[in-house]
Amino acid sequence: MPLATPPKIAALSIALLAHTTCVQAGTGPKAISAHARAVQAQAINLDTHLDTPALFSQPGWKISDRHDAAKDGSQIDYPRMVEGGLDGGFWVIFTGQGPRDATGNLHARDAGLKRLAEIREMVAANADKFELATTADDAARIKAAGKKSVYISMENAYPLEQDPSLLSFYYKQGLRMLSLAHTQHNDFADSAGMGKAPDGEHGGLSEKGRALIAEANRLGILIDQSHASNEVFDQMLALSKAPIILSHSGAFDVYPHSRNIDDARIRALAAKGGVIQVNSLGGYLIDTGATPEYRAERRKLYESAGDFDKLSAEQRAELKAKFEALDTKYNIRKADFDDYMRHLLHILKVAGWQHVGLGADWDGGGGVLGYEDITQLPKVVQALLDAGYSDEQIKGILGGNTVRLIRQVQALADPAAVKAALE
Ligand SMILES: [Zn+2]
Fold it and tell me: What 8-state DSSP symbol labels residue 100?
């Protein structure tokens, strides 16, 4: 049984479906000004949730090749990062939540270590294009060297359930951000679920979750709340000695989905110096009209595809066509660029520009009509200029705020714990 089932079912289908070619209202700026390009060139452009490592083990897939989102649904690779001006970001070790027994925990441990190795192998095999980033200063240094930054993050701490002390090993290997739970509760924390929030299991964080946060603080690892419940948010904020991040989240007051965060909590996050990075997963941005019947059929279709990590480009294209047919059958509404900007601009107003950034969930379900892959990042810059944001503010949103947060969190680490982990 594939461990990562069902990893991001909503995600995958939306990613695969967001790619149609018709030009229509809502797809954003039609032209990018020289000013917008200049702002982006001066900024450090980081996305804090890149799920692309899930593609690294797919047969024939190479980060140095240019891919077509309309054909295989993929959204990030080196040529397209260059075109879109993305300087790097946090590359995710994602593990779908499975059984929380000894066998499940061991499978998760292995899956996490395998994905960690794949990320490091990608960097080693493309050393002229990518470099592992572990400190705040690395982002600017690596950009100046003409390369892309690879910070490593973990989405869902399931690989640590067996042995949480593995965190120091991950730290030594480059891990700098950690989320506790994904779409289901686990030993560490309650999840926000995938729509209607489920009843909590721990009432927020478990004791084991609290201990993991304390250890992350000691090591200077960013704590990521995305996907966890509101109670987890409140407890993380109270407990963490360092400001926290929401690596890919949206605004509940724009669209009330359990995965989004409300204005009061956004203000509390900002008041403690944290940042929220805005997600572009369509099902979290708008009501797509998805019914339980549609979701059940989509889940069946996804499960029939087997292990997503092993699909070839042709198999992905086939799956994409099937998802498209399903969406047509159920008349599913697709989010567009304007829907994305509605969340981003709302969050900017509530949090203040110093506390906002981009975490579009590329290759993990992100992407909407008019914002299909990373080549379209300049549209966000143009839209922010059009909305009246200054160059300085936009540079913060594109990555400056994330760099500041990394610096703050690492400054609050315990030097002895860091030294011991690196030995
Ligand atoms: Zn996610």
Answer: -
Peptide bond into 159 cis (omega under 30): no
Region 228-246 average pLDDT: 98
For the chain, which domains are there?
9-20+42-422 (3.20.20.140)
Q: Per-residue pLDDT tens for 30-83?
A: 999 999 999 999 999 999 999 999 999 988 899 999 999 988 889 999 999 999
Backbone phi, then psi, for 199, in 5-degree steps? -60, 140
Distance 8 CA to ligand 1 centre (A): 7
Ligand 1 centre distance from Cα of residue 241 (Å): 24
For ligand 1, the distance from its centroid to the CA atom of residue 200, given in whole angstroms, is 19
The pLDDT-based confidence of 17 (bands split at 50, 70, 90) is: very low
- In whole angstroms, give the CA distance from residue 8 to residue 162: 23
How far away, in angstroms, is 120 Cα from ligand 1 center?
Answer: 21
- CB neighbours of 61 closer than 8 A, spacing ≥ 6? 55, 67, 74, 313
Quick check: helix, strand or coil at residue 153?
strand
CA of 51 to the centre of ligand 1 (A): 8
Query: Distance, CA 178 to ligand 1 centroid (Å)?
Result: 12
Considering the chain, what percentage of its residues have pLDDT values greater than 70? 94
